[in-house]
Every structure is written in structure tokens, then in C-alpha cells.
Structures
1.
Amino acid sequence: MRASQKDFEDAMNQVKLLKKDPGNEVKLKLYALYKQATEGPCNVPKPGVFDLVNKAKWDAWSTLGNLPKDSARQNYVDLVSSLSSSPEPSSQVEPRADEKPAGYETLVVTSEDGITKIMFNRPTKKNAISTRMYEEIMLALKAASEDKSALTVLTGIGDYYCSGNDLTNFTDIPPGGVEEKAKSSHILLRNFVQCFIDFPKPLIAVVNGPAVGISVTLLGLFDAVYASDRATFHTPFSALGQSPEGCSSYTFPKIMGSAKATEMLVFGKKLTAGEACAQGLVTEVFPDSTFQREVWTRLKAYAKLPANTLRVSKNIIRSREREKLRAVNAEECITLEERWQSEDCMNAIMNFLSRKAKL
Ligand SMILES: CCCCC/C=C/CC(=O)SCCNC(=O)CCNC(=O)[C@H](O)C(C)(C)COP(=O)(O)OP(=O)(O)OC[C@H]1O[C@@H](n2cnc3c(N)ncnc32)[C@H](O)[C@@H]1OP(=O)(O)O
């Protein structure tokens, strides 16, 4: 069920009762969702650069773009419920000594109704995946694989599902130079994709808006993909001097045939949600106005099925491919390590950072 006005008002009251300060980033998010839910898209002039607090608020609100009021209300209620009911996202799993403490900076993770929901939470950066976010997604997936939920869902907070790799990840060059950076990125990416290959329960993507780069390629490793009709699917690797990852060089041709996969992965053709569904990458598309309600109603029903049986059935569908996928992942990362050191890739990143280029 979509959050009602009453749920929204209850959530506003709950915020006042929070025992722990949720931190500035979450407070800005709450502010922005509140304004969007009550007034719609940001309609006030941008404050001056020295008015830091109001500028931060304005940025947070305006980044929600044209997010409908009822989606904003729902996101507000979800965010407050995650703050009040499960402030320690991995509380169902004992963290090992070598793990980061519970509490995510780039994600909101909730677990209820048999569903663990991992939400990308960098809406001001269109949910681009920073190095920290790669690490946190791996931790959240590990916790979800061990908790009691039947299903695990990935989705985005704000108007984007995810804008792919955070291109500023490549600006933090270590003393060993670009070569060392490419090597460490190779290892991070390989481990990250491995978590999706090995994930033991049904893994569902709820694609709430545009998806770019690695957030698209990974969809081939999900068990179901539900998309809003606002979502688009774009893998602009060639324009970035990069090559396909997330096992897409294997899964995409298998899902849609090699000609359609080439259009996406080599020529960077952006697909609408309808096109992605016709090509088998997306399971079903819903109108944005009913997307959240319809998807969560369906997932809550699926989550009532016996959790162990869901695991067993997923495993029998996926297990034959696992070794192959591991080999593909390794090969893609080797190729990317070389690409990241190429002139094409460096120029593309510099162009984006100097705002000369966008998708
Ligand atoms: C360990 C390494 C592993 C590497 C794995 C490799 C993966 C490959 C990929 O994922 S390739 C895909 C990379 N992504 C992109 O190329 C997207 C780049 N972004 C854009 O083109 C645009 O931002 C947009 C089309 C996604 C959205 O455009 P819009 O005009 O609506 O919004 P802004 O451009 O103003 O964006 C708002 C702020 O968000 C920042 N941002 C958006 N995407 C990214 C990104 N991928 N990386 C870093 N930052 C991003 C953008 O810079 C704005 O920030 P600002 O407000 O501080 O300026």
C-alpha cells in the first residue's frame, strides 16, 4: 500500500522522537522529501554561494527533480521507518572483527515483511557508486544473505536508480600512479561483482528511475527486475573509453541476442523501460504513478513463500552458470584495468569532471 497522508503525518511525528541524531545528510534528505511531498518540485530561487545552509537545503530539494508528491511521501515514510525501526542495518548479523561497524553512510537498509531492502542513498549525486558505496553494498549483501528475509531488493532513493560508477573515484590517484589505481579498482570491481554472482536468495531490482553503467549491467545477475516507465537503461562504455563489466559481455547476449547486446554495450544505445522489457532485461514495467504500490504489493506476497525453498529453487536455476560467470568477471576486470589507463578513458573522465560532457 502507498503511504497515506496519515502515515506521512505519523512519520513527521516519529522524526521528532528519534533517540539518535540521524546526521546532516539524512536530515537534508528528510527536508527535501518533506518539501517535495508537500509543495512539489523545488520552486524557489537558488540561494547565494555564501548562504551555506540554505544552499544545501535547496540542492537537496532540487535534486529530487520531478519526483511525484506521492513518491516523495512514500520515500519519506520509508526513510523515517528505517531510522526508527532498524538504526543498525546489519543488526541481524554479528559483524566480524574485520568488518566495518554497522551503520551505512551511502545506503539505507531496512528489513521487514520478509524483504531486506537496500536503498542507494546518494540522491544529490544521482546515486553514483563511490568507493565507499561499493564496500557498503558488499557488506549489506553479505548481511542480507545471512538474515531471515526471503527476498533482497535493491532500489534508489530520489529520482535516479543509479548513475553508475562515481567518475570521481578515478581522481583519487595513489602514490603508485594510475597503474596502481587501475589495479586496486580491478580488485574492488571483481569482488563487488562476485557478491552478485554468489548471492544465494532471490535478488530483485526495483528500478525507480534512470539507470546507467554498472547499475544496468548487473541486472543480468538479478532474478527479477521491475521498472517504472520513467526508467531508462544506458551503458555508455565506448564514449567513456571503457568496456563492459558486471558479466554483461556474457549475460546480455544471452538475454537479448548478440546484435541487441552490441547496440547497448558497444554503441551505447539507451533503452526505454518498455524496450528493455521487450528485450528480456526487465521483467515488467509499471506506470510511475502506481509503480511503488504495485511492486511492493507483489513482492510482499512473494516474500510469504517459504524462504528456504526460494533459495533452493534459485540455486538450481543459477548454479550451472556460476563458474562461467566467475571466469567472465575475471576477464572483464583484466580488460578494464587496461582501459582505465587508456587515453580515451582519461579524456572522457576529465571531460565529465570539467563539465564538458554528459551522457
Ligand atoms: C572501482 C571502480 C569500478 C568501476 C566500474 C565501472 C563502471 C562503469 C560505469 O558505471 S560507466 C557509467 C558512469 N556514469 C556516467 O558516465 C554518468 C555521468 N553522469 C551524467 O552524465 C549526468 O550526471 C546524468 C545524466 C547521470 C544526470 O544528469 P543531470 O543533468 O540530471 O544531473 P547532474 O549532471 O547535474 O548530476 C547531479 C550531480 O550528480 C553528479 N553525478 C551524476 N552522476 C555521476 C557519476 N556517475 N559520477 C560522479 N558524479 C556524478 C554530478 O556531477 C552532479 O554533481 P554536482 O551537483 O556536485 O555538480
2.
Amino acid sequence: MESPAEGRAASGDHVSGDAAAGRPAKRSKRDEILARKNRHSKQPVPAQGSEEPAPAQSGEEPAPAHGLERFPDFSRELEPSHATALEAARMGIPCWLAQPTTVDCDAQASVDDDRLALSPHVRSRCAAAGIGSLFAVQSAVIPVLRAAHAASRLRQHVRDLCVSAPTGSGKTLAFVIPIVEQLRARLVVRLRALVVLPTKDLARQVGEEFAFFCSGTDLRVGLATGDVPLAKEQHLLVDAAAAAPLAGGSSRVDILVCTPGRLVDHLAATPNFTLQHLEFWVMDEADRLLGEAYQEWLPKVQASIEAVAAVPRRGACPALVPTPGASTSRRRPPGLGVLARAAPRIQKLLFSATLTQDPAKIARLRLVRPQYICVTGKGGGGGDAGTYAFPSTLDEFYATCPVDEKPLWLIYLLWERQIRGGICFTKSLEAAHRLAQIVQTWIAEVPADAWPGEKIVVAEYSSDLPAAQRAQVMRLFKQRKVSLLICSDLVARGLDIDQIAAVVNYDVPTHMSQYTHRVGRTARAGRHGAAYTLVAAPQAFHFKKMMKDGGHWEGCLRAISPQKGTLAMLRQQYEAALAKVAAIYGT
Ligand SMILES: Nc1ncnc2c1ncn2[C@@H]1O[C@H](COP(=O)(O)OP(=O)(O)OP(=O)(O)O)[C@@H](O)[C@H]1O
């Protein structure tokens, strides 16, 4: 299947519309809460074409006409059970977080489904991307957001939303589509959607997704990642001609996709850059964004928003004629001398495959009446159930090997399992660099006619490489001219490349979330993928415990061991390669 991201022009700096030990294996108190919450909050499936919910026990449901699974009706709000609420509160877990609305990962919906109420524009962009049905997370989130905005034009009552769904399940479009739908009929350019991601690469990727779906509208999408000098970025984001500070700002973009550090830079140093018109604040890879300080970005953004909300403004924006269904500025025309309405409530949208359950981190967000939608995947039935979910199309393996033979076992995997189109994760940049040297030298030792299949080409991909070289390596990988990338955790999150057939954890991940994101680079969007973890013997206990605590061990991973003959055959060339590397680098 072709990725919708394929075929879209790389957008450059600015793109426009057109253009988580130690817990016992038995069920913990929290597991009980989560199990109960799942029983309570699994939503009944509505009958096709009906506003009425169907009976909760299916088997009586008629088959959908389009052959796709129906998605749940989120229009009803469920009251948490009192006992569960008390128990969760005792543990410091907010009630809404303990009681998510769970969605089956197979629940898809046709793009034409009336409940999604997608515009012809968005449907045509979906068609252009080869999307005929929307994935579970999209089918669940889009109607919720659309309904919230339809019901509250002034947005004072919109609820914040947290979403967790497995890696590669399509979370990006779950916020891109409703934002484009909501803003596409706007009359005046104002910064109305802020999308924050932890890395430049991810911001670029999401920026391209927005640009693709905004194509054919007047909406303008901006990117702020620090890839270009600040002055140039400022020019792209605000109108330079507006020399004097304007009460309403002078945004050139409707949607800004950015990294937290660069956002802080603009808040501090860009005249006329304002968040006062924001309607959406998306935090993708939210657990990571909340887990790191990034120049204290979160309190700074909160302070900026609260500052503008607290000050009544005189009408400083151009007049707008309200249009049914249009997203308009709610300010009065200039010169009327009438105080403008208070700033609209900003809806916060959090997305992650491993959404944090840490009450303290969540509390920092000051969420308003939050809703939590959790798309189920494979695994995640244990200690941190709901936190870690895996694509059902992912096959997972592990091999326990001697510490000093890990490179040889990696070579064995490449040879025997014919891994082509893979990513190999190490614990550090140095480890990636050294491993790449060993494997590359080994490849040179293997006679051209001895390869069982296509010869493998390995490249190092690290933040140590100049940006241009990194881009070149990635390009070659996407063109399948490089068959294996060896890297640190630089690309462990969010990176969406459709041809990644396998992930190798050369170094064992230290946290369950790290494992989840790394292996999530494969088996995306319903495709099959394999994940291999090389476990050095002394780490075997820790690895197994981590996986068990994460509810992802029994029946999830299969042990593999190499064929002795093949290993012995490969050992010869491997040792020759090791000697060469030692001679060159003195290691
Ligand atoms: N409805 C759909 N039909 C087909 N492909 C889709 C659909 N929605 C998304 N995709 C594709 O699925 C892939 C994964 O999507 P996306 O990157 O949004 O996943 P994700 O849930 O954000 O993953 P991660 O947690 O790893 O960041 C992308 O290539 C995207 O284009």
C-alpha cells in the first residue's frame, strides 16, 4: 500500500496551503481499575444509519453496507462509576484518565460515512492520498472534534482530548483532518492551530501532511524548527511590513507546526507573533513533550496564552462577516471602540502511542473536562495496560546471545532473515558509529557471489552527520539504495517510512516506551513487519521483566536461536572484519 505521504512535494522551510520495574506479575490495583474501566466505558456501536446506539452485545448487529467495521458513537458521555472514581483518585489518577473510551483497532470507517461529515475537499484529498477508509483512531477522533466545534461556535465549552493509539495507526490524520475541516473556510489569516512535536524531522513530516490536506484551500501552513535562521523564519511567519506591534498580531500562517524550542524563540523574539487567536493546540508525541523541559516551553506557552486571554482587547482585527460553518474571527470591526470578546478557549489535543499516566505531568497541562480515547492494539494487558499497545501486524522475536558476539548475531540476522529495508537501533551515537563500521567492513569481506539474496548496503544515520548528509542517507534509504540504517534513538519516534520491513534492537531498550516506539517504525498502517531484539545474556533478566511489567511478554515475543553451521560460516568473515576495523581505528 502506498503511503499517503508519498508523492507529496517536500515542503522546505515554509509550506502553504497550496503549495514504561519492579512490579509483581499479578494484577495490580491499577490493573483492576483499568480492567473495570474498560468494561464500563467500551462504547456500544450504533446501528448503521441510525442515531440510536445499538445493543452493547453485538452479534445482533446487521453487517455494514460498505464492508467496513463501524466506529463507536462518542456523542454520549459516560459517567464514571463512583467506586472507580474514588479508587483512581486515591492513587492520584484523574478519573477521566482511569476511564478512557476504548476503541477497537479494527474499527474503520469509510471516508464517505455520514458520521464523519467530511467535506468534498477533504474527501478528494483522501482520494488523492489513496485513502478510502479511515483508521480506527481517525474514525473515533474526527467525529468527536467535529461535533465539539459544531456545537460550540464560540468554543467556550470544547473539551480537551487525549488520544493514545498504537504506533503507525494514523494518529497524524486524526488531528490534521478535523483542523483543516474547521479552518478551511476562515476569512482572515490568523494563527489558529499550533502543532508541537519533539523533533525537527517529525515537525517536517507533519507539516507536509498539513500542506497536502490544505492544498486547494487558502490555508497557509508554517514550519518553525530552527532549520533556517530565526530572521528568515520570522519573515515567513509574520508580516514584516507591520513594523509597529499590532494588538492582533500579523500572522502569515493559519497553522504552525513547530518544535518546542523554536516556539519559545518566536514567543520571545518575534514581533507580532501571537497565540491570541489559537483554537487548537496539538501536542504530538505528548509524553515526550511533557517529559523534557525544552527551554521550559510548556509554562512559557501557557503564560503567553493566559496573558492574552486576561487582557480585553479593543477591536484590532479586520471586520469579518460571519458565514455559516466558517471559522471567523470573533472581533468587532476596528474603530467601533467596543471591547472585543474574551479570547476563545483553546482546545488542547494530546496524541501518543505511549501516553503518560503520570498525574503530575498531566496536571501541568491544566486540561479542561478532558476526554481520553484509547485505541487498543496487540499486548498491553499487564501492569501498564493501555499505555503500551502494538500493531497487530507486528511479529516480534528475541535472541539471547553472548555479549561479545552481538555484532556477529546481527550479521546472522541480516544474512539468514534477509533483512532489507530495516532500522537497527543502538544505545548511543558512538555505538551506532562503531557497529556501522564493523558491518560495512564485513560486507566488503563477503564475495559478491556468496550473497543469498540482494547484497546489503548499510549506512549510519545519526545527529552527528551534517543535515545535508543525513537527508541524503534518508533519501537513499527511501529509494531502497540503502537497505539498513544503523542509528541511535534519533528516529525511534514518529518517523514514517512505509518500506521499513524490520527493526532490530541491537541494544536492548531500557524502557518499555522506548521499545514500543522503536519497533513501531515497522508494521505501520496495517502492513506486516518484524522486530528483533538482541539480548545480551546478562540483560536477559531485565529485558524479560520489563516486557512482563509492560504486559507484553507471554505470547507476544518468540525466541530464536541461530543455526550453528551458518553462524560458524559467518564467523570467519566477521573476525576478519573485526581485525581490519581494529587496525584502522585502533579499537
Ligand atoms: N486511513 C488511512 N489509510 C491508509 N493509510 C493511512 C491512513 N491513515 C494514515 N495512513 C498512513 O499510515 C502511516 C502511519 O500514520 P501516522 O504516521 O499518522 O501514524 P502514528 O499513529 O502517528 O504513528 P507513530 O505513533 O509511530 O508516530 C502513514 O504513512 C500514513 O500516511
